[in-house]
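Retro notes (design track)

What went well: tokenization of the new backbones is finally stable.
What didn't: we kept losing track of which sequence belonged to which structure.
Fix going forward: every design gets posted as structure first, then sequence, in one message. First example under the new rule, 72 residues:
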């Protein structure tokens, strides 16, 4: 079984979608891509990982939730 995880980061910029909206978009994209044969047929949505907003840019691997996702 292929597990598909989504990731999003909150932002202080109000023009950036919320992590809830990011999750909904990625969940729908997973379903659409699976149905279109672009992901393996056994692909399943395994969850969404979110990070808090930061005032300064941080590399993906240096963000708390992102580093846990990479470690998994």
């Amino acid at each position: 079984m292929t597990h598909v995880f989504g990731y999003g980061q909150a932002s202080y910029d109000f023009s950036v979608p919320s992590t809830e909206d990011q999750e909904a978009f990625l969940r729908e994209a997973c379903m659409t891509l699976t149905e279109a044969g672009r992901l393996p047929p056994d692909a399943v949505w395994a969850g969404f990982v979110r990070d808090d907003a930061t005032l300064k840019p941080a590399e993906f691997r240096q963000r708390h939730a992102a580093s846990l996702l990479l470690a998994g």
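Added context from the reviewer: The longest strand covers residues 43-51.
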